[in-house]
């Protein structure tokens, strides 16, 4: 009988649509509030330069968070993204860097280094993604274990390849992404926006994205419906790897080289952003627009702490609390949905 | 009751849509199916009856590509087939509605209706979901089936058990194929919805599609089936035209009080 009384309490279609929209975009709302509060309370926070800086700083965590989201939505996960990013950056730096452990490869014409390095980074990432995906899909090993192994293994490869040394002195052509701007916005930030746009489209509008979402919801049903579950999940891992490769390429450009400990800790930031963005760890749930807001939210807080001159360990404490808050919020959202939608 | 042991003619095997020949299935030491042989013609509804553990669901899984038989042959449209996956069986024209529903509750009604068969349009060579056409077709199919669902954009997790089952039933009516396997399809349905479900089966039959209906409920079998196949302990215990038998007799076959009825002697 409770079901029936609940039904009568439900909202009309218009208010229901408004509530649904608000719940779906809650993270953006929070981001907006946080930015307004920071702008009002922190002197010198509200500047175009700082806002652009937040966007640019979000790139690396943002791009790997997209890959992480793809695998999580399919009901798996990819912990290796951080190490893969570092490996891609290291390989590009080792090949083209002129200082430290770099071998200073020069191509003629010089601009060829741009597409070649990008292709290298994407290929390295995709191959590791294929390796992860194959172990998960063909051998049925838990993705947590597989990608935890890769996370450690690939970081080891970064250290081994560089001999623990740093690489610096990337040629100008490889620094284009970090240096040049379009409409005042750095190219790295454009790469971030483009990545989110393309993958939001893939997830929401293509059969592949639809299948990924449904596999995360009920893999048995999709298998019975004739969807090639193994292939789809493997592709998700390959894409996750390739995106980590892209992040590494951008990171190499930004840091003008690579170090053996490049990007350590970004996995946890990506995880935090993804959870804050509303992607369920159980799979089949989540949208990339939320993840984007989650990444921006984390970076905004970090930037605010920097601007205020507070010690950086506050960042970790606040970000950690934010993750826990996000999980609570998710439970709350579920309750509201059950009650009113 | 020895009169019933005369072999029933049944549909001739050369005209059969699906023919199972001496199907055996072992799970380790357990023999789930022992020498199962029966056939079904196009436009025929066969009710598969039997107690729990009689092997009905195993048999359905073998026909639908979920399991491979240990020995024996599955002949579909006169050609021996080995369905390695549900996708292969589906490609051949065999649709299955499973006992535990095969819906993804995290997406909406339209997405479930078109699961694995999404309509796409090409935009710059990229396949893009044609949501409008899929929504229209889903709306039409559900309306034809007399199913009312408030919004097709609702995620299935917000729907009732009956509505969920109705989606699956409408899905099979819409896609049809050549042979439909229904494993306890009315388990979550009320009286009125069950009646409508039986009507759906009749409509599918009139389109010349073969239907295998697995059920526990005698009344459903007698209401719709042309033929009744009884399974007991992994073997066919009876294979009779519905008009030649009675619920009483079928109950006896299910429980084993009558040894074997209507099948060829070994």
What is the gist of this entry?
The complex is a heterodimer of chains A (341) and B (266). Chain A is mainly α.
Structure write-up:
The complex is a heterodimer of chains A (341) and B (266). Chain A has 341 residues and is an all-alpha fold. Helix content of chain A is 73%, strand content 3%. Chain A has a single domain (12-340), classed as ABC transporter involved in vitamin B12 uptake, BtuC. In chain A, a hairpin with a 2-residue loop joins strand 3 and strand 4. The relative contact order of chain A is 0.19. Residues 1-8 of chain A have low confidence and may be disordered. Chain B has a domain at 28-103 and 159-255: Rossmann fold, CATH 3.40.50.300. Helices cover 30% and strands 28% of the residues of chain B. Chain B starts with 15 loop residues before the first strand and ends in an 11-residue tail after the last helix. At the A-B interface, helix 11 and helix 12 of A face helix 2 and strand 8 of B.
Key features of this structure:
heterodimer, A: about 350 residues, mainly alpha, ABC transporter involved in vitamin B12 uptake, BtuC, about 75% helix, B: alpha/beta, Rossmann fold, 6-stranded mixed beta sheet, 4-stranded antiparallel beta sheet, 12 strands, globular, disordered N terminus
- Order of strands across the main sheet of chain A: 1-2-5
* Proportion of helical residues of chain B: 25-40%
CATH superfamily caption of one domain in chain B: P-loop containing nucleotide triphosphate hydrolases
How many angstroms separate the termini of chain A? 17 Å
> What kind of sheet is the major sheet of chain A?
3 strands, antiparallel
pLDDT < 50 runs, ≥5 residues of chain A = 1-8
**What spatial form of chain A do the alpha-carbon principal axes imply?**
globular
Number of helices of chain A: 16
Structural category of chain A is: mainly alpha
């Amino acid at each position: 009988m409770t079901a029936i009384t609940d039904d009568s309490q439900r909202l009309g279609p218009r208010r229901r649509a408004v509530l649904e929209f608000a719940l779906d975009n809650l993270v953006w709302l929070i981001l907006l509030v946080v930015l307004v509060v920071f702008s009002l309370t922190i002197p010198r926070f509200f500047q175009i330069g700082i806002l652009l800086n937040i966007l640019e700083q979000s790139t690396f965590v943002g791009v790997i968070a997209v890959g992480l989201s793809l695998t999580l939505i399919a009901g798996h996960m990819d912990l290796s993204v951080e190490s893969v990013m570092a490996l891609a950056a290291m390989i590009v730096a080792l090949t083209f860097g002129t200082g430290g452990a770099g071998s200073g490869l020069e191509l003629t014409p010089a601009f060829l280094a741009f597409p070649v390095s990008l292709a290298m980074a994407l290929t390295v990432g995709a191959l590791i993604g294929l390796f992860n995906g194959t172990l998960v899909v063909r051998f049925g090993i838990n993705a947590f274990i597989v990608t935890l192994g890769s996370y450690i293994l690939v970081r080891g490869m970064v250290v081994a390849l560089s001999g623990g040394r740093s690489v610096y002195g990337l040629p100008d052509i490889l620094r284009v992404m970090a240096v040049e701007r379009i409409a005042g916005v750095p190219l790295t930030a454009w790469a971030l926006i483009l990545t989110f746009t393309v993958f939001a489209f893939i997830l929401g509008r293509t059969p592949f994205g639809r299948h990924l979402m449904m596999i995360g919801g009920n893999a048995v049903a999709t298998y019975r419906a004739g969807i090639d579950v193994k292939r789809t999940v493997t592709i998700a891992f390959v894409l996750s790897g390739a995106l980590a490769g892209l992040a590494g390429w951008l990171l190499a450009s930004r840091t003008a080289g690579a170090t053996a400990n490049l990007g350590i800790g970004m996995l946890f930031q990506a995880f935090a952003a993804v959870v804050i963005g509303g992607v369920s760890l159980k799979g089949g749930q989540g949208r990339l627009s939320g993840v984007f807001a989650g990444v921006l939210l984390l970076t905004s807080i970090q930037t605010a702490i920097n601007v205020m001159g507070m010690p950086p360990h506050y960042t970790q404490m606040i970000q950690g609390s934010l993750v826990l808050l996000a999980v609570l919020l998710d439970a709350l959202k579920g309750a509201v949905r059950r009650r009113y939608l | 009751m020895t009169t019933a042991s005369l072999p029933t003619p049944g549909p001739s095997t050369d005209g059969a849509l699906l023919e199972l020949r001496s199907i055996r299935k072992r799970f380790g030491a357990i023999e789930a199916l022992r020498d199962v042989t029966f056939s079904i013609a196009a436009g025929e509804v066969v009710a598969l009856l039997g107690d729990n553990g009689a092997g009905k669901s195993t048999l359905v899984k073998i026909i639908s590509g979920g399991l491979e038989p240990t020995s024996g042959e599955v002949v579909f449209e006169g050609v021996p087939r080995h369905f390695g996956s549900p996708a292969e069986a589906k490609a051949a024209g065999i649709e299955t509605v499973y006992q535990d529903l095969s819906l993804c509750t995290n997406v909406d009604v339209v997405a479930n209706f078109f699961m694995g068969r999404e309509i796409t349009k090409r935009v710059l060579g990229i396949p893009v979901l044609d949501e409008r056409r899929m929504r229209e077709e889903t709306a039409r199919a559900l309306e034809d089936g007399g199913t009312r669902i408030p919004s097709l954009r609702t995620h299935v997790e917000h729907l009732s058990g009956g509505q969920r089952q109705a989606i699956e039933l409408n899905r099979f009516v819409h896609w049809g194929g050549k042979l439909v396997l229904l494993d306890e399809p009315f388990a979550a349905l009320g009286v009125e919805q069950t009646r409508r479900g039986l009507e759906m089966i009749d409509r599918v039959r009139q389109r010349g599609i073969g239907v295998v209906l697995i059920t526990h409920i005698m009344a459903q079998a007698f209401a719709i089936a042309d033929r009744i196949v009884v399974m007991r302990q992994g073997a066919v215990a009876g294979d009779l035209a519905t008009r030649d038998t009675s619920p009483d007799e079928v109950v006896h076959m299910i429980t084993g009080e009558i040894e074997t009825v209507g099948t060829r002697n070994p």
